[in-house]
Amino acid sequence: MSMPKITVFMAAYNQTNYIKKSIESILSQSFTDFELIVLNDGSTDDTVANVNTFNDERIILVHNESNKGLVFTRNRLLDLAKGEFIAILDSDDIAYPNRLKLQYEFLKSNPNVVLCGGHANVIDENNKKTGQKLNVPVDDNIDLFMLFGNPFVNSTTMFKRTIFNEFLGYREYAPAEDFDLFSRISEKYRIANIDHVLVEYRIHSNNTSFSNSDVLFKQEQKILKNLLNKIGISESGNFADIHIELFKSDYKLKNLNNYLHFFDALKQANGKSNRYDQLRLERFLYQKWLQILGSPNVDMLILNWYFRKEVFTWGNFDLKKFRKAFKKSIKHVFK
């Protein structure tokens, strides 16, 4: 087979119940110039047998000698991938038919973007939609969004293979190794999400994010701390707790002043480090502030809170977004 334009990578460990649908969703793509690497990470069920039911030369089945875990398994891409781009799909998720086409065309049309993702619909163990949708930010502030959380659904991501190799793949941040990689890429290159639903993301009892939720959170904390250090903030004491609340969107009325102090510290530190464009950061923090004031836990209707000097300037004021946030506050109070 000639060099494919896309390498689709699917790590698999004991996914006999779901992997056939995942593979079928890739083989049914409208974009056909790809290779599908399925890497069996020491499965002990019928995962391999299910993969072998397919007769398609684009499928490449590779085995680890034993169960090595996601970081080791995904880093085998450094040697195995041949495509110009790498697309990730977890072996329990399902890609929509135009997923590869949409992302390939976007990345080719925007050569300065090296990584992109999209939205996802949530399904359950029985392939039924739950009604939940994982919406990701689609504006130009995704790198800033990372200060408060992972802006990507991993199973929707596609990135340039050369960039993956440049950063030497994933580091030992499992199960948040994807967030760590994306945050490092964002420090040097432009990243994006496209405003399309690309996959069905499956929620079930064996999800890594559920089975290892405590470990996941601890690793995410390390990554967030790394991002703050790059700005010039050494997270300690009260800021650490405040940052966690903001990361979890667990806003508390009693901590409004602390959030403002944290935002002001971000602005002051960035003014010295120039990690981000200062005006773009200030505008982003003000939108974050409006989000906090409009949240159900806060229900803040006192107007002067919307115009606090720590976050407000007329330069970053957006009347449309202000009205939207204020109406949301009114709705929460009088519902």
From TrEMBL:
Transmembrane segments: none
GO molecular function, a single term: hexosyltransferase activity
UniProt-listed Pfam families: Glycos_transf_2 (PF00535)
Domain annotation Glycosyltransferase 2-like: ranges: 7-155
Domain of life of the native organism: Bacteria
Name listed for the protein in its UniProt record: Glycosyltransferase 2-like domain-containing protein
Biological classification of the source: Bacteria, Pseudomonadati, Bacteroidota, Sphingobacteriia, Sphingobacteriales
